[in-house]
Amino acid sequence: MRELMYTGRWQAEWRESPDPVIDGPGQAVVAPVAATTCDVDTQILAGHGPIPAPFAIGHECVARVVEVADDVTAVQPGQLVVVPWAINCGTCEQCLAGHTSHCTSVPYMAMYGAPIGGEWGGLFSDLVKVPYADAMLVPLLDGLDPIAMASASDNWSLAWRLVAPHLKRMPGASVMVVARGSIGLYVCDIARALGASDVLFVSPIEEHRALAETFGARAVAETGPVDKGFDLAIEATGRVDQLAVAATSIKPEGFCESAGNHFRPGELPLFQMYLNSMSLRIARDNVRPNIPAALELAASGQVDPRAVVSDVFDWEELPERIVERHAKPVFVRDLQI
After folding, report:
1. What is the number of structural domains in the chain?
2. What is the span of the domain harbouring residue 187?
């Protein structure tokens, strides 16, 4: 089989690797049929990631199950599934608490798409081994478009987590979104669908602002801190200065969520944040528990995740197209694989 390797700044190429085989209980082999770049993949391709090349890249996809071990019961060959980015067993104390990105059955930060917690490969591969199939794989709901849901492995389900629980706790809350990639756009769509009273989208990217407006958000290119303006602020830029804007734009006792990977250091206005009695969460997403609810929302027709997809390319074009800086490209193979 082939797996796509990040080989240097804005460089990627196929590498031949042995086909994964089932050699133990609980395992599955899947074939990605619709895979996309996470917002952090853009940072990696630009050379800003913490791990030097080369390594297998990609951690968002819908795949078709090819083979399962005899004891796997949750999925079966031929089924379309979402593959979560984090490797998790589903049975350790952390997994049972919903903290699947902190699974204690595997090395710390075990994941697809970056060799931080071991070599697990990437989801831009012809075939992928899933070690805990019953715990990890989530069947794609009937009627959902694999292209639209290619990001359910991470960004779509993360966006749901960033805003949906807060709006359940604070119906009609106002939301500020400071973003550069797909996460912020998904948040705008979800926030309006779930009843946010006001959504302000801040991005320097004109095309993203135009799309956010179709989701019902107000959109501006930039803003300074909005004094006591929002119930919830979400930062998804990877820039500490933009996190500071989000963190200082919320009402007293408000909440700020940061989904950015901050590879570069910076300063936050901690005293101002302290005086405002705010809460800040900077978190790797425990995505697996959130995928079912995120898929259900997508299936409800209240949102349009397909609108965020910027381009659809053939699987064979991956090495050339992924380095062209498309906003949210999806790479597809024959969905009958």
Report:
1. 2
2. 155-282
